[in-house]
Automatic annotation (TrEMBL):
It catalyses: GTP + H2O = GDP + phosphate + H(+). Residues 7-188 form the Tr-type G domain. It is found in: Mitochondrion inner membrane. The lineage of its organism: Eukaryota, Metazoa, Chordata, Craniata, Vertebrata. This is GTP binding elongation factor GUF1. Keywords: GTP-binding, Hydrolase, Membrane, Mitochondrion, Mitochondrion inner membrane, Nucleotide-binding, Protein biosynthesis. It comes from Cyprinodon variegatus (Sheepshead minnow).
Amino acid sequence: MSKFPVDKIRNFCIIAHIDHGKSTLADRLLEMTGAIAKTEKNKQVLDKLQVERERGITVKAQTASLFYSHDGQEYLLNLIDTPGHVDFSYEVSRSLSACQGVLLIIDANQGIQAQTVANFYLAFESQLTIIPVINKIDLKNADPERVESQIEKVFDIPREECLRISAKLGTNVEAVLQAVVERIPPPAGSISEPFKALVFDSNFDHYRGVVANIAVFGGRVKKGDKIVSAHLSKTYEVNELGLLRPEEHPTQKLFAGQVGYMIAGMKDVKEAQIGDTLYHQEQPVQALPGFKPAKAMVFAGRILEQELDNYPGGVQHAIERLTLNDSSVTVQRDSSLALGAGWRLGFLGLLHMEVFNQRLEQEYNASVIVTAPTVPYKVLLSSAKLIKSRRAVQKNVVYIDEQRVMMKYLFPLNEIVVDFYDLLKSMSSGYASFDYENAGYQAADLIKMDILLNGRPVEELTTIVHRDRAYSTGKAMCERLKESIPRQMFEIAIQAAIGSKVIARETIKAYRKNVLAKCYGGDITRKMKLLKKQAEGKKKMRRIGNVEVPKDAFISVLKRKDK
Ligand SMILES: Nc1nc2c(ncn2[C@@H]2O[C@H](COP(=O)(O)OP(=O)(O)OP(=O)(O)O)[C@@H](O)[C@H]2O)c(=O)[nH]1
């Protein structure tokens, strides 16, 4: 591809609240610039992952380079479609680092929603040009006037700057392309500078190794060049590079201002850190600031099971490779006597945890068991100092218009992490939307609860709970254990205790398990089979004191309840 002057390049993201129409607009922009054919089949083409297609949501940011003629000039537009859901906001913030402007899409019926506000601030803080685009004006209940008033009031953007479109029907989408060219500034870099590129995303290809998505901030790079990654100071030869249109489109060179992909013989996922800087071997540059690591909000232990071994290299590789593509997941090795070796993974939210799990299964054929989500705590060890409990505290209220109000609260994270969003949606008949950010640690009345089997604490089941919830949580855990521990030759007491105080108890009656009881007389092979099965079952048991506990019992207590 021939050189494209920097002033004819525009890099922009599409950001919005979930379902406001980003991916549909991206389809129209791809069609109008000839990147994809205009057919029914080409729907949400940038949502490539199976999990995205099944759930109808974007979870990965995707890049597409478009060629667009305007006023007799040819422009290269690099579009990044981003996810809308709060759990994937790390994708948005990284994508913004490769852009100078954003299209902020707002549904003409729903108006400004929680993630519209959150995404606006991400773009605003990055000092990007913001083009408000009111979408779905074809809807019967569309009220673009009202949405423009909201935009003026909440974002202080004059209503004249808003575009009104229907991404579905293609109405006025041409105006969006024109606004991108006219309002968003070109990237700052120059071709005469030394080569400098930011790795803003990467994924692992089974055959070609690491494929890095890069934004070239200065200079140029070509096939065969020797480049260095600032993070590891390791040198690589560029094997392949090109544009994403949205499929890979190999080129000989990439220039300042361009966004594209690069393959440079990186075989290990540790070699292509997201946020890394690449430069020419002979022309070292100062590394770019990179990205702040994502802060995990929800933790889940994953338990290593036999069936995880069906991915070549084992589940370790599968997790490493998937976290390369989703760097917001934190991974720690973990192991316990009862559950065996596993991982403790941190996520930005519950949907994020579900999606990661689904991707492990679908893309790496690794089935895993997810334990109940927990949130991080800081524990102050003290003798008898009671800490005051804190419930949600209202911080402020803004009336967006006569129908909508924006309220800010300070919540304990574990109160909102599991079902708060679902509850809010059903209570408001789907009208309310919700977003959250980390407000730091707060003192709370939390206690450590132990589970005892015949008086012995089971380390793996110790949990931190709010004092008000201790009884119900303890009772539920005891009941679940009672269901899953088989009767044994003596009575088993299952207790939930806070310190030395027992708050819940279940009892399993004594019983001599005679697996042959039902086999009156006859068939010896059937008897042998049952005895063998019992012996195998014993291998999967863990002994706590004198009580034999099957592995499944731990899992049934720790596993998330199905919805
Ligand atoms: N009537 C109407 N529907 C639209 C329009 N644009 C998008 N939609 C519909 O709105 C729904 C959501 O559109 P998407 O493009 O998937 O929304 P999104 O913002 O990409 O969603 P996420 O990526 O999951 O955040 C789909 O059912 C679209 O068909 C429009 O202009 N008019």
